[in-house]
Amino acid sequence: MADMNRKIQELLSDYAGALRDGSLPVFLKSLTRQEGKRLTCSDEFWEAAEVVRVLNGVGFADKAVTADVGLFASRVDANIASRLKKSKSSPRRRTTGSKSMTKTRKAEKPI
Amino acid sequence: MGRSLAGRRKSASEPLRLRKDGSNRGAMNRRLRNALKGLNAPDVDRRRRAMEPFVRETFGMFIRYLYRYLGNEVECEDVLEDVYGDIWENPDRLRDIESQRQLLRTVYLYYMRKRLREVYRRMNRHLYLAQKDLTNLTAPELGLLDTMSQSELKEALGKALGRLKARERRSIELWLDGMSVRAIANELKTTVGAVKMLKFRTILKLKKMMSEYCHDQ
Predict the structure, then answer these.
(1) What is the mean pLDDT of chain B?
(2) What's the whole-model pTM score?
(3) What is the pLDDT of residues B4-22, one digit of tens each?
(4) Selection from A97, A51, A62, A102 nearest residue B168 by Cα
(5) Contacts of residue B60 in chain A, CB cutoff 8 Å?
(6) In terms of Cα–Cα distance, which of B87, B71, B85 is closest to B119?
C-alpha cells in the first residue's frame, strides 16, 4: 500500500518523478488531505519545486519527441479556421449544442 | 497609435543589453520580427498567414518552456495549439516585443498560464489540494529562474552543480539520467529515504546558488 503520510522531501521526490515521467495528475490524485495541508505550509517545498521544474526543462525538454513543426503549423491553422467558423456562424441559443427531446419533437413537422 | 509610438520611444531610450562578447543575448532574428509584425496586422487573413512563420520560429522555444510545467509532449502540443489560437485571436500583448526573452515572458504570462490552469482545473474537485496550491504547482507566477532562457539556465546549472559536494552532484546527475530513487540509492549504497532527503537538500542548495547567479548577472 502506498504511503499516505509522506514527508515534504518525499512529496518533492514524488512530484519531481511525476513531472519527469509526465504523470503529474497521478501525483496530484495521490495527495491526501494532510499532505495537501503540509504542502500549503511548506515554503521549502515551493522553492524546491521551482528548481525541479527548471531541472525538468534543462534535463529532459531537449529529449522530448515532438511533432514536425510543419504538421503542427497546419494543426494551428485548422484551429484558427475552426475559430473563424465559430465566430462567423450565428450565435447559438444553447451552449451544450443539444436540444431537448420535447423541443425537437415540437419543431418536427407532421408527415 | 499612441501606444505603439510610446512603445517605440521607450525602446529607443533603452540601451540594448550586450553580453561580454558584444552580442545581444535573446535578440530576435529578422524572420521572427517580421512574423510578429504580421501578427499585429488588423486584417484577419493577414494575421492568419503570419501564424505559420511565427509557429516555425517559436515552436521549439515554446514547447521546451511548456515541458517544464507538464513533462508530457502530447499535453504540451495540445496546450500550445490553443495558445497559438489565442495569440491569433488577440495579439495585442505582442505589440512592442523587443527580445525573445520578453516574448517568452509575455506569452507565458498572458497566454500559456491561462491554458495551463485549464489543464488541471477540472481535476480539482477530486483533489485534497487548495485551488491556489494547484495553480502554483501547475501554472506558477514567474520566478527569477523562470525568466532565464534555456541556455542561460544550462550555464547556471552547470556552474551550480560544479560547486556541490560529489555525493550531492552525483544524486542529481543520476536523477537527470532518468534513474529511479531506488536505483540511485543502490548506486550510492544508501537507503531510499536518505536519497530523498539528500535530493531535497541539494535542490534547495541549487536554488540558492542559482538565485545568486541570477543576481550577479
Answers:
(1) 83
(2) 0.80
(3) 433 333 343 343 343 444 3
(4) A51
(5) 69
(6) B71
Cβ–Cβ gap A31/B48 under 8 Å: no
End-to-end CA distance of chain A: 64
C-alpha cell at B81: 495549439
What's the rounded Cα separation, in Å, for the pair A30 and B198? 23
Answer yes or no: are the C-beta atoms of B213 and B156 closer than 8 Å: yes
For residue B175, the SS3 value is: helix
B136 to chain A: closest CA residue: A46
Instruction: Report pLDDT digits (tens) over B111-135.
Output: 999 999 888 877 777 788 888 888 8
Contact at 8 Å (CB) between A76 and B55? yes
If we measure between CA atoms, which residue out of B47, B32, B51, B83 comes closest to residue A74? B51
Least CB–CB distance from B68: residue in A48, A54, A83:
A54
> What is the rounded average pLDDT of the residues A40-67?
88
pLDDT, average across residues B192-217: 90
Which residues touch B210 (CB under 8 Å, ≥6 apart)? A51, A54, B145, B156, B157, B160
Q: Percentage of chain B surpassing pLDDT 90? A: 45
